[in-house]
Amino acid sequence: MSEPFSFKLIKTSGAARRGEVTTPHGRVQTPAFMPVGTQATVKGLYPEAVKATGAEILLGNTYHLMLRPGAERVAALGGLHKFMNWPHPILTDSGGFQVMSLATLRKLTEQGVTFRSHLDGTMYELSPERSIEIQSLLGTDITMQLDECLKLPASREEIARAMALSLRWAERSKRAFETRAREGYALFGIVQGGDDIPLRQESASALTDIGFHGYAIGGLAVGEPQDVMLKVVEETTPALPAQAPRYLMGVGTPHDMLEAVARGVDMFDCVMPTRNGRHGTAFTRFGSINLANARHANDHRPLDEASQHPDARTYSRAYLHHLTKANEILGQVLLSTINIAYYQQLMADMRAAIAAGSFADFHAATMAGWAQGDIPALS
């Protein structure tokens, strides 16, 4: 029998936390980065290649999967794990962000949101209950409540309205989750409140009273400056239960994640490593490297000879530059793989530093390495 969901806090170093999430499909070491498999695939990569980067959990998207191929179809085919050949943990977001950012002709009410598909114009209704139903049909290990995600900046009145609605939807999401009786699976609540610290703390307190298996900080990385995002995280995490995982949604750059871990965050997801990889950017311990830049055309060095992932050690910068300029699919695949592997290595290194009680030293050394940047080839 598979193990039920649980979270174990193993060690702290300052506010940084080393932990372990147990799910019905396996365990996840935290801090953890979840590659984004929006439409039941991490774009361009075999599941085995994603696993080889060190990834232990993926993120799938309720909005996209409800539109195509449909949650009922995925359920009939054995669930999302079997459908996409990923027998490891999966978290699905609720679809709320995509409804707000992608759908057209949307109408928000207390009941939920009615919207027209960006694919073919078909009208859909997504309520907290339907979002939970879809995620249950997909069979994912961690389900997210439906919330309303505002773009920033926004007025305090509008932020407060959306936060209050998200709390009411959180209560309905929990009731819907409990009626579906998937023993051992998890539901996370989502803290909203924009860039308003008191509203964030009010949301966190109310969600804690409702009671969830884990807590996400949503509504960030939507246009606000990094210092604002980090201030919100710093003031919100202490209001969340210490014995539950904390997930910062949609974040972000390596720097964002390093700083968020320093403020007590355990889990992340972002399309950046794959999206940027498809456009010629590599993430490394030297910082980001734009392989489209002409200075790489004759550079025989690998991206990083010390990387633990073979693709970063094997292929020359000149070859990756050529693939990028030629718009070859292989270049997109290699850079996506290299980037996810770097994100996973960063997580592993942070876990090791926290376990050793030396996260502050690791933070300083990592920042210094990024500041120094990549050293151009001599010839």
Could you name the key traits of this structure?
TIM Barrel, eight-stranded parallel sheet, alpha/beta, 379 residues, three-stranded antiparallel sheet, single chain
Plain-language structure description:
The chain has helices spanning 47-52, 62-67, 71-76, 80-83, 96-101, 128-138, 156-180, 197-210, 226-236, 254-262, 272-278, 310-314, 317-325, 329-355, 359-372, and strands at residues 6-13, 16-23, 26-30, 32-35, 58-61, 90-93, 104-108, 113-116, 123-126, 142-144, 186-191, 214-217, 246-248, 267-270, 281-284, 287-290. Helix 7 packs parallel to helix 8 (197-210), helix 10 packs antiparallel against helix 15 (359-372) and helix 14 runs antiparallel to helix 15 (359-372). The strands form four sheets. The protein has an eight-stranded parallel sheet with strand order 4-14-13-12-11-10-6-5. It has two domains: 6-97 and 126-266, TIM Barrel (Alpha-Beta Barrel), CATH 3.20.20.105; 277-372, no CATH class. By secondary structure, the chain is an alpha/beta fold. Helices cover 42% and strands 20% of the residues. Strand 15 (281-284) and strand 16 form a beta hairpin. The N and C termini lie far apart (58 Å).
Summarize the structure in short.
This protein is α/β, with parallel strands linked by helices and 379 residues long. It contains 15 helices and 16 strands. It has helices at residues 47-52, 62-67, 71-76, 80-83, 96-101, 128-138, 156-180, 197-210, 226-236, 254-262, 272-278, 310-314, 317-325, 329-355, 359-372; strands at residues 6-13, 16-23, 26-30, 32-35, 58-61, 90-93, 104-108, 113-116, 123-126, 142-144, 186-191, 214-217, 246-248, 267-270, 281-284, 287-290.
